[in-house]
């Protein structure tokens, strides 16, 4: 067996192994965020997403799809819906992508309704960013669709400014745990 044959076979084996690590089918394309439609319901709580304020989310899984529609799973709240769904299904080999509203990329508003402030919702595809890349304000006075929620920002300075104005602390995606979601 020649050296060239051994090197070629080794290279092919390495490429095959790497493809398996990236997703098993050799296609490492990450699905894009979509615009959430006016009649799309949250896949956890069933509320119509665009009828409510606050951050939204989407997730794609390799072998897990919603019952009522094509992927992605859609969420009207992060703390109460997206993160519990994520923790329930978090086999990282299956997760393809998770997106959340990026409040650094939109012209958001915080308005008073009743006795609490609420942050605006932005269901357009371009308002979403990869969830792992954002900073989250947790424990602020600002509400989303189902009460207190996590407010994500791609610019850490924006997250710090939001926390300074509305309270809360800034954490990374990896800092969000089931215990943090439950408090």
From TrEMBL:
Pfam families: NosL. InterPro entries: N2O_reductase_NosL, TAT_signal. It comes from the Archaea. Transmembrane segments: none annotated. This is Nitrous oxide reductase accessory protein NosL. It comes from Haloarchaeobius litoreus.
